[in-house]
Specification:
With about 425 residues, the chain is an alpha/beta fold. Helices cover about 40% and strands about 20% of the residues. Bound molecules: S-adenosyl-L-homocysteine.
C-alpha cells in the first residue's frame, strides 16, 4: 500500500518537473513514507527521520515531508514538536499536502499554474502518468483505503482511517492508464479486499470489479490481497476459478491457530472454519496457492496455544506464511487491555520454529514443479537473469539474452528451492 502511495506521489512530482535523485544528500525534496504496523517498522521510520535533522540544518531550503501511518489520518501534533525539521505532515495515501506546500513556494503566476496542474494530478489518482515513462510489468493498485475492522492487535484502522472503497470507474481508468504504459499484471490492494464495494451504493463487489478489469486487453493477469476469511464468498471463489485472468492465488491470513487466541484477537472465525475454507478453496480453484499471515506471541499465547498454530501450518501445507512477532501498538485494544506476556526470546523461538517448518514445506511443495512446464509472466532482469512469476506466484528465474519484459511464456522447470524455481524457455509457436 505504501509502495503504491509513494509511486503516486513520485509521479505527481515528476509531472511538476522534479526528477528522482540517486543521493539523498542532493535531494531538494525528501518524502519519508512510514509504516507502523509493528514496533520494528516504527523504529526504522524514527531512525531515518532523526538522521535527516542534520541535513536540514545544512540545507534550510530542503523540504522534508513525513507521510503515512506515523502521521495517521487525524494528524499528530506531538510529532510536530518532536520533529521540528519536518516541513509537511501528510496522511497515508494523501499526496496533496506536499503538492500544495510546493506550489505555495512558487512565484505568484507560477503558483497559479501549478495549482491547476495539481488539481489534474489529484484527479488522476493512482493512474498519474509520467509522459514517456514505462511502468513496471506488475503494479499495485489500491482499491480499498483504510479499514473498519477491529482486530485487537492492529493499528491500521487508527492510522489509515475508516474503510473507503474507491469508485469502480476511477479504478478502471487507473488500470487503463497502467495498461497503456506497459503494465501487464495488476495487484488490487485493500486491508480486507473481499469487502470491496460494501460501503458504496450501487458499486460492483470484488467479482464484478475483477470482471470489469478482465476486459482490458493488455492486462494479462489480475491478483488481489488481502482477504479476510469471513468475507470470502462463494461468488468470489467462483470468479477466481472462472475468470481466466484472475490468478489462482489467495492471500487469506489466519493469524493464530488457537480458538481462544483467535477470539482475543477478535478475528471472528475458528481454526476449524479456516481449515474448511482452505479445503473449499482447494476444491473449487484447481491448483490454488494460498498464503497466510501469522502472529506469534500474542498476549496469553501458551505453549499449547502456539502448538495449534504449528499443527495448522504443518497440516495445511500452505504456499506462503508471512510470520510476525507480536508487538503492542499504541491505541489498540490489545496494547491497552492485554499484558504483553510472552518474552522476546520466546517469541523468537516460536518464530524460528514456524520459519523452519514452512521452509521445509516449501522445499517439498516446490519439488512438484520439477520437470513440469509453467506459464511465467516476466518482469525484469536482475543479475543477468530474468525474473518472473507463475500463476501460483512462484518466483522463476531464466537465463536468456531475449527481452522478456511483459511476456507470458512457458518455462520448463529444471531446479527448485524453497524460495524460487529456475528453468528454461520452451520453444514458442509450432503447429
Ligand atoms: N489487513 C491486512 C493487515 C496487513 S498488516 C491483513 O489482514 O492481512 C500485515 C500483517 O501484520 C498482519 O496480517 C499481521 O499478521 C501483522 N500484524 C499486524 N499488527 C501486528 C502487531 N501488532 N504485531 C505483530 N504483527 C502484526
Amino acid at each position: 500500500m505504501n509502495a503504491a502511495d509513494s509511486r503516486r506521489l513520485a509521479r505527481s512530482l515528476e509531472n511538476l518537473g522534479y526528477e528522482p535523485s540517486a543521493d539523498v544528500d542532493e535531494a531538494d525534496v525528501i518524502v519519508l513514507n512510514t509504516c507502523v504496523v509493528r514496533q520494528s517498522a516504527e523504529d526504522k521510520a524514527i531512525g531515518r527521520l532523526s538522521s535527516l535533522k542534520s541535513l536540514k540544518r545544512q540545507k534550510p531550503q530542503l523540504v522534508i515531508n513525513l507521510m503515512g501511518c506515523l502521521v495517521g489520518v487525524h494528524g499528530n501534533p506531538a510529532l510536530q514538536k518532536r520533529f521540528p525539521w519536518v516541513d509537511v505532515f501528510s496522511a497515508p495515501s494523501d499526496p496533496q499536502p506536499l503538492l500544495d506546500f510546493l506550489s505555495r513556494r512558487q512565484e505568484a503566476d507560477q503558483a497559479e499554474q501549478w495549482r491547476r496542474e495539481i488539481d489534474v494530478l489529484l484527479d488522476e489518482e493512482f493512474g498519474v502518468a509520467v509522459p514517456g515513462e514505462q511502468r513496471s510489468v506488475s503494479e499495485n493498485l489500491p482499491v480499498v483505503l483504510g479499514c473498519s475492522h477491529a482486530c485487537a492487535y492492529c493499528v491500521i484502522p487508527l492510522r489509515r482511517g475508516r474503510e473507503r472503497s474507491r469508485d469502480a470507474q476511477k479504478i478502471l481508468k487507473d488500470a487503463k492508464t497502467f495498461a497503456s504504459q506497459g503494465v501487464r499484471e495488476i495487484v488490487l490492494l485493500g486491508q480486507i479486499i473481499d469487502r470491496y464495494g460494501l460501503d458504496l451504493p450501487d458499486s460492483p463487489r470484488l467479482p464484478g470489479l475483477l470482471s470489469l478489469l478482465s476486459d482490458i486487453p493488455e492486462i494479462k493477469r489480475l491478483r488481489f490481497l488481502t482477504s479476510h476469511p469471513n468475507w470470502m464468498t462463494d461468488e468470489l471463489i467462483t470468479s477466481v476459478a472462472e475468470l481466466p485472468k484472475v490468478m489462482p492465488h489467495i492471500e487469506v491470513p489466519i493469524q493464530a491457530g488457537d480458538d481462544g487466541i483467535l477470539m482475543a484477537m477478535r478475528r471472528g472465525y475458528t481454526n476449524q472454519q479456516y481449515r474448511e475454507l482452505v479445503a473449499k478453496l482447494r476444491d473449487r480453484i484447481p491448483g490454488v496457492s494460498i498464503a497466510t499471515d501469522i502472529i506469534v506471541g500474542f498476549p496469553g499465547e501458551t505453549e499449547a496455544a502456539f502448538q495449534k498454530t504449528y499443527d495448522l501450518l504443518a497440516d495445511l501445507r500452505l504456499d506462503v506464511a508471512h510470520l510476525a512477532r507480536y508487538s503492542p501498538r499504541p491505541g489498540t485494544y490489545s496494547a491497552r487491555e492485554l499484558p504483553d506476556d510472552v518474552s522476546t526470546e520466546e517469541k523468537m523461538r516460536r518464530f524460528r520454529l514456524l520459519e523452519d517448518l514452512q521452509e521445509n514445506i516449501l522445499r517439498e511443495l516446490n519439488q512438484a514443479y520439477l520437470g513440469k512446464s509453467a506459464s511465467v509472466l516476466f518482469e525484469y532482469r536482475i543479475k543477468g537473469r530474468w525474473y518472473g512469476r507463475t500463476p501460483t506466484n512462484r518466483i522463476v528465474f531464466v537465463d536468456t539474452e531475449e527481452d522478456l519484459a511483459g511476456q507470458e511464456r512457458q518455462v520448463k522447470i529444471e531446479w527448485t528451492g524453497p524460495w524460487s524455481l529456475v528453468g528454461s524457455l520452451e520453444p514458442t509457436g509450432g503447429l
